[in-house]
Design brief:
Layout (H helix, E strand, L loop, with lengths): L1 E5 L6 H10 L3 E5 L10 H11 L5 E5 L3 H10 L2 E6 L17 E5 L2 H9 L4 E3 L6 H8 L10 E6 L18 H14 L8 H4 L2 H8 L14 H26 L4 E4 L5 H4 L4 E3 L8 H7 L1 E6 L11 H8 L4 E4 L15 E3 L2 H11 L3 H18 L2 H11 L3
Parallel strand pairs: 1-2, 1-3, 3-4, 4-5, 5-6, 7-8, 7-10, 8-9, 10-11, 11-12
């Protein structure tokens, strides 16, 4: 198959492209910047010229409506593997195009799209274990710990929080949203936001921050606002849990911008931004305990960070997600927590239990090496294109 791979700067580009080529596909990378995912005449002209060379499919990580339209017009397939959640472009009318083959890592999102008649399959996100083994050496090698507890991720301090941008929000509404955020922060594995932020409050927020993605999008304001609140839950969760851990342990954080409340704590060190391909895996391998706090907009699936850590041979404690038991056994190949107190207890226990950590990290590594390899997952994806 001749594939045109469009990249928008995603981390996994090289791993996906290299694996497709290893599987025998002919892949060309197209990287012209796109300014508008729905209509961009200059980009479309360049892409149309490239497509004249004859491709069987356009492939992207995440869904871009404009590419679906162009694949349809050219008589080819448009393959998209969703790595972000939410991915609002999935609410474009173009998702119904016959040329689409959409793969999503979150089972709840898969079911939502399937119910709409979209050509969609559930496919978890992958990891290139072979590359990580070459970079880091064999997992069986004795660990060289440089970090007691590590967290690599964002605190969303750089303007990505939509609720922060809502001007003149009444104190009553703000207080109610804060209450929803606090309540959801106590619960893992079950979404309360959609129940607590009801229609009356949706209408109140609509009068302050109306949602308009465009005439070719079909998504309710309610769904958008719920995801705004879920991001606030994530922000509060990450800040509070890291602060709590910093009172008891040495915690190394790799993030672009640290919350002000954490900057003064002597046990918490900011490593700054780290490169995804080379620096990040070393942190995972050299940490006694790695932490994952899944973005709450991912309601059931396993985030890329989870497979990144396990694929690098790291020991991981993560929040509970409904799809975790599909692949892992708690306390045997991964460790998950279900409350703040539970997390603190687990960190105290596993920081002292080296043999247990080694057993669990090796079991987790072996599972992702087999079940989450790009070779296996992309073969499933490619084989399904002919069904």
């Amino acid at each position: 198959m001749k594939i045109l791979y469009y990249t928008w700067g995603e981390w996994m580009k090289e791993d996906v492209v290299n694996t497709l080529q290893t599987l025998g596909e002919t892949v060309t990378v197209f990287d012209k910047k796109i300014d508008n995912y729905d209509k961009d005449p200059e980009f479309q002209e360049s892409l149309k010229e490239e497509l004249k060379k004859g491709y069987d499919a356009i492939f992207t990580m995440d869904y871009i409506p404009l590419l679906s339209e162009m694949a349809r017009d050219e008589g080819g397939l448009y393959v998209s593997w969703i790595s972000d959640c939410p991915n609002l472009t999935l609410y474009s009318d173009t998702v119904q195009n016959e040329c689409n083959r959409i793969f999503v890592f979150d089972e709840l999102l898969y079911k939502e799209l399937k119910a709409k008649g979209v050509r969609v399959r559930h496919l978890p996100l992958g990891v290139n274990v072979s590359r990580l083994d070459t970079l880091l050496g064999p997992v069986s090698k004795e660990a060289n710990y440089q970090h007691e507890i590590s967290f690599v991720g964002s605190f969303y301090q750089n303007g990505y929080r939509q609720l922060e941008k809502v001007e003149t929000m009444p104190q009553e509404l703000k207080g109610y949203i804060d209450g929803v955020v606090s309540a959801q922060n106590l619960i893992y594995g079950y979404d309360m936001v959609s129940e607590l932020f009801d229609e009356a409050h949706v209408k109140q927020l609509e009068s302050l921050a109306p949602v308009n993605l465009g005439e070719n999008y079909n998504i309710s304001s309610e769904k958008v606002y719920h995801d705004w609140i879920r991001k606030e839950v994530t922000v509060m969760e990450r800040e509070r849990l890291i602060e709590d851990l910093g009172l008891l342990f040495h915690v190394d954080v790799a993030t672009e911008k640290m919350p002000t409340a954490l900057e003064s704590l002597s046990n918490i060190k900011n490593l700054g931004y780290v490169d995804y391909r080379n620096e990040m895996p070393k942190i995972f391998r050299e940490s006694k305990i790695n932490l994952n706090f899944t973005l709450r907009t991912i309601q059931s699936g396993l985030p890329l960070r989870l497979t990144d850590v396990l694929g690098a041979g790291g020991f991981l404690i993560t929040n509970y997600q409904p799809e975790l038991p599909y692949y892992f056994e708690n306390g045997n190949s991964i460790v998950w927590f279900e409350s703040r107190e539970h997390l603190l207890d687990l960190c105290a226990f596993y920081s002292r239990q080296e043999k247990e950590r080694e057993k669990i990290r090796n079991n987790g590594y072996n599972i992702v090496k087999k079940a989450f390899s790009y070779e296996r997952l992309l073969k499933i994806l490619l084989d399904s294109l002919t069904e």
